[in-house]
Structures are given as structure tokens and as C-alpha cells.
Specification:
Elements lengths: L9 H23 L4 H24 L4 H32 L1 H23 L6 H41 L1 H11 L4 H39 L5 H11 L8 H13 L3 H30 L4 H15 L3 H23 L13 H8 L4
Helix pairs in contact: 2-3, 2-5, 2-7, 3-5, 3-8, 4-5, 4-9, 7-8, 7-10, 7-12, 7-13, 8-9, 9-10, 11-12
Length: 362
């Protein structure tokens, strides 16, 4: 006869059944609305960045909720979205004419290949490798053009969701906090940590990319690089890629300039990029990003790889956030269910401060 202490209680069975139903329904919703996941993530990101300004306008300045929401949405569009969209649109315009672009790109590759082979006898770009590279670049340019409509759809959906978040922020945050099946201290821990991560990724990464792109643009003009504005956009986008970064753009350009006979300008641009652009990257990363939130480099590397596969270009921001959130939830699980329940992040001491922290959305 089974011991009663070892029998599963009816309450536990009900809990597990209800949890299974919730997970299945959540999975169905996410699967069928996967197109809008980047819109939701983008809306949450902008909400966190604008949160304190929204409360200031609504609660201290007594602005109408709809007016405060529209003003902050317009400000975020001008400051955050348009610079990124400008770079993406510039790339699409330049790469949009696939045939003309591929002709120039083929000449560019042939120049680099011929120069390297003549100097080193090393066939770095064999015919097979060059065909693969040309094919991949052609596919990328086609995807860039076809992705324009999807990007506009994501942005429109994102602002539609964001409006309802900003209009009634206390109500929105109360729903999020009350829905989390966690202790209040752990809700506060997640809220505070995610606020820092989102601001670091939403502000830090684009600022580093734009800063590095602008500094490189000066060098492209000084040393007479071809299509400096296009190279600026490519450098800004490439600076977000882990490990190689902007070097994936300026190294081939320097070799191409030397191969065309502009040896002094090519070497000068290489020195400028290695020293000045590299110094700008390190300076911004070790000051701005560390001040916002000290994110481990491996989080960024794996987050960007995963984010690009899931969300495309927007995954550069959302990927590292999701990796950091996963690690944070592991820490919260330990705090929630183990005897050692002291979070690593310092939490508020008073009840009033804790209530305020719980308002922070994840």
C-alpha cells in the first residue's frame, strides 16, 4: 500500500495541469503571432527608455496621457529609430540594383584577389570561393530589398503597441508585476536588471556603431576611399558584429585602394582605421557601455548570433537581452526555490521603495 506522504496531492495535479494548459496556449499564441514578436520586444525596449520621462510628463507636468504618449513616440522615432533606419535604407538603396551592384562588386573582388595573389602566391579567393561569396552577397542584397516592407510593418506594429503601454503605464506595469509567479524581491530584481540591460543595448550599441561609423567616415573622405557614405553605413553596421567588427569593411577597402595604385592612401587609411577607429571603439565600449551595464562579451557574441537568426537586423539589440534574461532567470530560480535566497543585486530596503521597483517592467 502506497504511503500517503508519497502520493501526489490533488492540488499539485491541478497546478501541473493548469501550468501545462497555460504553456500550451502561450506556445500557440507565440507561434501564430511570431511575426509580431520583434514589435513587442521593440515596444518594451522603447517603453523602458522613455519610462521616467513618461511619468514625469503625466504625473508631475499633468499632461494628458495621449499627448505625453505621442510626444515620446515622436521623440523616440527621431532619436532612436530614424538613424538606424537611415543606415538600413542607405544600404538598401545602394545594394538595391542587384545587377549594377554585382558588377562593381565583382571588379572589387577581382582587384583584391589579383593583388594578393601577385604578392603572396596565395590563392585566397579561388574561383569556387569567389562564386560562393558572390552568390551569398547577391542573396543578401535581394533579402535587403524584400525586407523593407517587413521592417516598416514591424515599426508600425511596434508603435501601435507602444502607445497603449505609454498611455496607462501604471496599469500596464501592475499587470506585468502581478502576473509574475515570483516573490516581490525577485520581481524587483528582474525589473531593475532588465532596465539596465535594455538601456545598455538600446542606447549603447547604436551609439557605439554611429560613433565608429562617423569617425571612419572622416578617414574615408581624407584618404579618398570610394563611396565614403556607403562605407560609413557598412562600417556602422559591421561594428556591431562580434570579433571582426568594422575591420570586415575597412581591411578589404584598404587592400583595394593599394591594388589600384593608391598605395599611400591605402596604407594611410589602414593606419587611421586601426589606430583611430579602433581607439574610438574601445573608448566607447569601455566607458559608455560599462557605465550603462557591464555586459559580458560572451553574452554579446552569442546573443548577436542567436538574435540575427531569430529577428534579423533587430536581433543585434534583442539577442544579447534574451541571453542575459535567460541567465538572470536561472539566478532568480535559485533565489526563488533554494534556501540561499539573497539576490546578487542590491534591492531596496523600505516597502515603499520596493513597491516602486516592482513597477519596473521586465
Amino acid at each position: 500500500m502506497m504511503n500517503k506522504d508519497k502520493q501526489i496531492s490533488s492540488v499539485a495535479i491541478k497546478q501541473v495541469s493548469l501550468l501545462a494548459i497555460i504553456l500550451i496556449l502561450t506556445g500557440l499564441i507565440c507561434f501564430n503571432l511570431s511575426l509580431f514578436i520583434p514589435s513587442v520586444l521593440g515596444a518594451i525596449t522603447i517603453y523602458v527608455v522613455c519610462r521616467k520621462y513618461n511619468f514625469y510628463l503625466q504625473e508631475e507636468k499633468k499632461w494628458k496621457p495621449w499627448l505625453s504618449s505621442l510626444v515620446l513616440m515622436l521623440a523616440s522615432l527621431i532619436i532612436l529609430i530614424l538613424p538606424v533606419y537611415f543606415i538600413a535604407d542607405l544600404l538598401i538603396q545602394k545594394l538595391g540594383n542587384a545587377q549594377a551592384y554585382m558588377e562593381k562588386f565583382n571588379v572589387f573582388l577581382e582587384k583584391i584577389h589579383t593583388y594578393i595573389y601577385s604578392k603572396t602566391d596565395f590563392d585566397i579567393l579561388s574561383k569556387e570561393n569567389m562564386d560562393k561569396l558572390k552568390s551569398n552577397v547577391g542573396q543578401f542584397s535581394t533579402k535587403a530589398v524584400s525586407g523593407t516592407f517587413n521592417t516598416l510593418t514591424v515599426i508600425m506594429s511596434m508603435y501601435f503597441i507602444l502607445y497603449f503601454m505609454l498611455e496607462r503605464p501604471r496599469f500596464f506595469e501592475r499587470i506585468i508585476a502581478s502576473s509574475a509567479p515570483l516573490k516581490r524581491a525577485n520581481v524587483a530584481l528582474i525589473g531593475e536588471k532588465m532596465r539596465k540591460l535594455i538601456i545598455a543595448n538600446a542606447i549603447g550599441i547604436p551609439v557605439v556603431a554611429m560613433g565608429q561609423g562617423l569617425v571612419a567616415l572622416v578617414g574615408y573622405f581624407i584618404f579618398g576611399a570610394p563611396s565614403p557614405v556607403l562605407l560609413f553605413a557598412l562600417t556602422a553596421a559591421a561594428s556591431m558584429i562580434p570579433v571582426v567588427g568594422a575591420a570586415i569593411v575597412y581591411v578589404p577597402i584598404c587592400i583595394f585602394m593599394i591594388a589600384e595604385g593608391n598605395t599611400g592612401q591605402g596604407i594611410g587609411l589602414a593606419a587611421y582605421c586601426i589606430v583611430i577607429v579602433g581607439l574610438t571603439d574601445n573608448l566607447l565600449r569601455f566607458t559608455l557601455l560599462k557605465k550603462l551595464e557591464d555586459i559580458h562579451p560572451l553574452n554579446t557574441v552569442f546573443g548577436i548570433i542567436m538574435g540575427m537568426n531569430l529577428f534579423g537586423f533587430m536581433g543585434l539589440i534583442f539577442g544579447p537581452i534574451l541571453i542575459s534574461l535567460t541567465l538572470l532567470l536561472i539566478q532568480v530560480y535559485r533565489n526563488e526555490f533554494s534556501e540561499e535566497s539573497t539576490p546578487d543585486l542590491k534591492l531596496p530596503d523600505s516597502d515603499d521603495e520596493t513597491d516602486n521597483k516592482i513597477d519596473i517592467i521586465v
